[in-house]
């Protein structure tokens, strides 16, 4: 599927077949993030098989139309540039029938070697665009990362609140989780 290029990387939406083909690279990004201490549902050390299984499930969800999967790829130097996935984010579209307007932003992951390059911001902007394309007008997410919180606030997300000890860091220590929302798309009504 199409994408946009900026800052030495390209963000694009993957279809089901592309998502399945990208499972090994996506697993590498997830493993790196967990090894770096990110609280993203997995404990350290993250087994490759568990990471692959997770991404296979995501690819199945893409195939069923339940979620959008976006990736950021970087091009290598040389006569035949090699692309590699350095970041990803999902928009979960499948919601209860009384919430057809809502999507959940999930698993914003940026490989440690690509942090600070604008990958996270580009992925979040693409997630909002994809959600709008799918008719969503309200997005929600949660995070335990101070860096991610700064990014979300810069992009206009509104903090709802903090739940103490909501999850665990990959080393098993409890961490607080902060919830955010953002209204997106044309025709968004204020409450």
Describe the structure.
With 191 residues, the protein is of the alpha+beta class. 31% of the residues lie in helices and 34% in strands. It has helices at 16-21, 23-35, 48-63, 119-133, 146-154, and strands spanning 3-6, 9-14, 67-75, 83-92, 102-110, 138-143, 158-168, 174-183. It has an 8-stranded mixed β-sheet, sandwiched between helices. A hairpin with a 2-residue loop joins strand 1 and strand 2. The radius of gyration is 16 Å and the shape is globular.
**Over all CA atoms, what is the radius of gyration?**
16 Å
Counting DSSP E segments of at least 2 residues, the number of strands comes to: 8
Low-confidence stretches: none
Q: H/E series, N to C?
A: EEHHHEEEHEHEE
Helix content percent band: 25-40%
Spatial gap, N to C terminus? 35 Å
Global outline: globular
Question: How many helical stretches?
Answer: 5
Average per-residue pLDDT, rounded, comes to 93
Arrangement of strands in the largest sheet: 1-2-3-4-5-6-8-7
How much strand? 25-35%
Largest sheet: 8 strands, mixed
The secondary-structure class comes to alpha+beta
């Amino acid at each position: 599927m199409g994408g946009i290029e900026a800052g030495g990387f390209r963000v694009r939406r993957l279809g089901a077949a592309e998502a399945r083909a990208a499972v090994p690279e996506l697993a590498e990004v997830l493993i790196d993030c967990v090894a770096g201490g990110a609280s993203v549902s997995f404990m350290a050390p993250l087994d490759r098989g568990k990471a692959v299984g997770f991404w296979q499930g995501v690819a199945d969800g893409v195939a069923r139309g339940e979620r959008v999967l976006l990736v950021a790829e970087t091009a290598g130097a040389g006569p035949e540039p090699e692309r590699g996935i350095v970041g990803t984010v999902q928009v979960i579209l499948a919601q209860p029938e009384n919430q057809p307007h809502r999507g959940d932003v999930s698993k914003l992951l940026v490989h440690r070697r690509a942090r600070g390059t604008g990958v996270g911001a580009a992925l979040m902007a693409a997630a909002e665009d994809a959600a709008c394309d799918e008719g969503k007008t309200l997005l929600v997410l949660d995070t335990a990362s101070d860096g991610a919180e700064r990014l979300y606030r810069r992009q206009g997300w509104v903090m709802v609140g903090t739940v103490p000890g909501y999850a665990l860091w990959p080393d098993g220590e409890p961490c607080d989780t902060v919830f955010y929302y953002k209204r997106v798309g044309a025709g968004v009504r204020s409450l």
